[in-house]
Design goal:
single chain; about 220 residues; alpha/beta; six-stranded parallel β-sheet; two-stranded parallel sheet
Length: about 220
Amino acid sequence: MTATTTRTTVLDRLAAHRLVPVIVIDEAKDADALGAALVGGGLPVAEVTFRTAAAADAIRVLRDRGDVLVGAGTVLTPAQVDAAVDAGADYVVSPGTSRAVIERCAERGVLALPGAVTATEVQAALELGVSTVKFFPAGTSGGAPAIAALAAPFGGVRFVPTGGVGPKNLGDYLALACVAAVGGSWMVPRDLVRAGDLAGVQQLVADAVALARSLRPDAA
């Protein structure tokens, strides 16, 4: 497959799951059990944020499982892109729109999901060849109504809202045709992962999957 085909395939897989668990992991040794909890809960996707020193190793552990679609989040520099891709990340997420990060992702053949919450940022992403963006922080940037407003002039753009999303407002985002998937940490709380309560994590993941499924237009 070409790099373009691979990036499209990854995005299609994210859209099929509709949910992206955003994970902060403190110890790479916890990653395998966390992966098992995600798979067991019906959501074999993980966005591991580069907020801890364990991120790259955790990505490597999850990728080695072979049953989890693994992304790297909070990627701020081309060097972090390299670290993420070298560890096996399938896609890279940034909180903002960085030309350097997007261009390095293109060079490495991985999907880039840059953050964009204004028309200027969305247009900048489009000019860099990106048509799916992370809408972050969603909760404080206008939420679902803001995404709907942006989608009007940018008809071909898809959004992955993250930040301030939870069970109470998930349906507002998933109701929008322009939303490819929704990112959140409520189903993978850092304290449960740190405490090793993976059964608790798996239950939260299963609940999130069931909720997202119930919100499909054809669920009835």
